[in-house]
Amino acid sequence: MKYISLNHNSQPVNFQTALINGLAPDKGLYFPEKIITLPKKIIDNIKTIDDTELCYEVIKDYIGNDFTEDELIKIIQKTIDFKIPLKKVENSIFSLELFHGPTLAFKDIGAKFLALCMDKIKNDFDSKEITVLVATSGDTGGAVAKGFEGLNGINVCILYPKGRISQVQEKQITTNAKNVIAFEVNGNFDDCQKMVKDAFSDIEIKNKIILTSANSINIARWLPQMFYYFLALKKIENNNQNIFSVPSGNFGNICAGILSKEMGLNIQLFIASTNINKTVPRYLESGIYNPKKTKPTISNAMDVSNPSNFIRIQKIFNNDLQKINKVIKGYSYNDSETREAIKDVYNSYNYIMDPHSAIGYLGLKSYLKNPRSDVNGIFLSTAHPIKFKEEVENSIGEQISLPSRLKKIMTKKKNTIEIESYDQLKDHLLWKVN
Ligand SMILES: *Cc1c(COP(=O)(O)O)cnc(C)c1O
User: Rounded to the nearest 10 degrees, how much is the dihedral formed by the CA atoms of 105, 175, 160, 290?
Assistant: First the structure.
């Protein structure tokens, strides 16, 4: 499989190169040169195929010959080694819980797959060490840290804004094995991102180390997100239509779902559920794509007003708004609607949702105004409620308890390097080679 740049000014590359590059040299997102249609035999027998094998069939043609079958199977096994339950919340409405991975958010799957792929190909870079550099406003950092933790020969540097992420998030970023270094930046998230950008455009760095990113536009984080759409439908027992509501920020997750549908998976419709940063729902309605300034919300992993992956969705539909509107509906909700949903669903169904998942639930409810027995409505639960403990507890009026996995991490001592300037970061990045 070759990957083209959606800016159309760079050469097509193979999986491995697209993985290391992250973005194409012309700053475009990579996109597979063709979308694979799965054999009908697989779609029809989805319920009887083993999980790993199914995921292998889904992704193998996108990887091409860069890995052997055996290598890819092992990567998949390690990527999906936690449960992904589909829970019935009310009539025709299901929650697909994607938060049972190491950092309790759905980003774990993509981060793990990316890390394991990189681990596999690192030896091709004649003894130069790979450094993965990411800035995080909270969730991505933890998922990337845990994905890469303990992989020899890959250093991971994570920049986060000091004092501006939650305690759980900070522990997940700062209590890992030696190859994961946490930089506590005296500044805000934009300052962190600026330093990362400076590093990527620094010629001296480029000459001395292999610097790569692990952000959500990387194809190796984007594509494996298809797995859980397939795994979800394995668990559905009827032959109803399936509708997925996806709490969306950067639109990577929903885009992977749409790709799954294009490959043949039985999904009728996607609901793009957002918070008040609703560029896409507005676009679907008006045809005008007009990002406004990003506003902070309680579903902060979706505080994105210019979602980078949307261009991939446009590509899938050849930029035809009518076609897009047949497959995607958009809805948006403010914080008080989100809180209300958390409370109502807890009171009525004894089910606890985090603010992001609650927005997914709300999208489904808006679309399925009345319950329909011929439809399965599935919303993606993208984070464990404990990650937004205070907000959730305030909404439901009760305490929620820490999963045992988190208890352990909360007692570990944090290990960080405090920095204020790009030069300090650069010294650290180069200290081994200078
Ligand atoms: C990142 C994130 C999202 C948004 O996913 P996108 O793929 O960026 O649309 C939703 N919920 C949670 C909890 C997240 O961390």
Answer: -10
